[in-house]
Fold:
Amino acid sequence: MNTAVDLVRARLPRLSRVHHIAVVVHDLDAALGFYRDLLGLELETVLPIPSDGVRIAFLPVGQTKVELVEPTDPTTGVARFLEARGEGFHHVCFEVPNINEALTRLAIDGIQLIDTAARKGAEGPVAFLHPRSCHGLLVELIEAPGGPAWSSLGY
Ligand code: CO
Structure:
């Protein structure tokens, strides 16, 4: 017998890949000295995101990327994270076919959302789930290119 929760779970869209894993760093250029220059990863982009108070870099490796995040505004959550815990792993980002649909279904399942709707990220529509609901992991979702949130957010 199916409960309502079983039916919702049955319709959850599959995660298609790990889009990126993010590392918070004090100094982006110093971190590139390791990830680009010593590990030999290709540097795809470096860009400031003033609305989030960070500067980020993406370095692709296979089907995924490493995201380096340098806080530029000390009042942000990521700056406080760096202050409290130091440099290191910050979040993992999974790609989904339809982000707003995924958020709705996760909310129905009782998952605490940091972003209740997709917002404009550097690489596409994104939303964060609260680590409290993800066994301590900060989870980001990103919509795959061509999904419905791309046009609704004006990419
Ligand atoms: Co990210």
